[in-house]
Write a structure and sequence with these properties.
The chain is an alpha+beta fold. It contains 7 helices and 14 strands. It has a single domain, classed as Jelly Rolls (Sandwich), CATH 2.60.120.620. The protein has a 7-stranded antiparallel β-sheet. Strand 2 and strand 3 form a beta hairpin. It is globular and about 45 Å long. It starts with a helix and ends with a helix.
């Protein structure tokens, strides 16, 4: 379906790849309608003039599961990630047309778990929206993946991600230590219905919207790590079971 070897090399070397035409227009329309019809009073929802976000997205809007994990996406996951991966986190982001919201340079350094406990190598515990987050050992972050499903055409002018290619290979890489004279920046435009696959350690950011165009993205994180017995992934979903039910 896709040039798998080249894509896998791109992810390994650059830290990301972009695949357009994963979702049909009618599938994107269904996802948008499901989001519009969801219960906005849920405490996992956040809405203001600059951003609308739904945390634990797949859990609180379960009607989208069968459409998101269509044949194309499941094959993409198996080809590029492997058959052992499962969902561990999901968020929906909507950057409205007039948004002044921007995201500073960062790596995604935390995972979502069900409780806080003292475990060697697990650092910087926080709690947000009744969910615990922690920075796990580096090898877990290096093995995880993120998929970003785009519901709108996303360009530099409406907040497409900008990344530092290859930065995922440098471990924990603090923004304040970046030498911008030596680094390259790549913008990552993605078409409506396309998917960006990226490593969470890839340094990334996004700018304010300047073209009055909306940017809606479903962000899903994947892992194949079994956590220590004292904690569990708070949003774990075996998407392969969803896919098998459809067929």
């Amino acid at each position: 379906m896709f040039d798998t070897d080249d894509r896998k090399k791109e992810i390994s070397k650059q830290g990301f790849t972009i695949i357009n035409d994963v979702f049909k227009p009618e599938e994107i329309s269904f996802l948008i309608a499901a989001i519009e019809e969801s219960d906005k009073s849920n405490p996992t929802f956040r809405k203001n003039a600059d951003v609308f976000a739904i945390r634990q997205f797949l859990r609180v809007v379960p009607s989208v599961l069968a459409v998101i994990f269509n044949k194309k996406l499941v094959k993409l996951i198996e080809d590029y990630l492997g058959k052992d991966y499962f969902v561990v986190k999901s968020i929906y982001f909507d950057k409205p047309e007039s948004s002044n919201w921007f995201v500073a340079w960062h790596q995604d350094l935390t995972i979502s778990v069900d409780k806080k406990t003292e475990i060697s190598g697990y650092l910087n515990w926080t709690i947000k929206h009744q969910q615990f987050a922690v920075q796990p050992p580096l090898d877990i972050l290096e093995d995880n993946f993120t998929l970003r499903i785009h519901l709108d055409d996303t360009e530099q002018e409406n907040g497409a991600l900008k990344v530092v290619p290859g930065s995922h290979l440098r471990g924990i890489y603090r923004p304040e230590n970046i030498d911008w004279d030596k680094e390259q920046i790549a913008f990552c435009p993605v078409k409506n219905g396309g998917v960006m696959v990226m490593r969470p350690l890839l340094m990334h950011a996004s700018d304010k919207t300047v073209n009055n165009a909306r940017r809606r993205v479903i962000h899903i994180e994947f892992s194949r790590t079994i956590l220590p017995n004292t904690i569990h992934w708070s949003e774990a979903i075996d998407f392969s079971k969803i896919f098998s039910i459809q067929n």
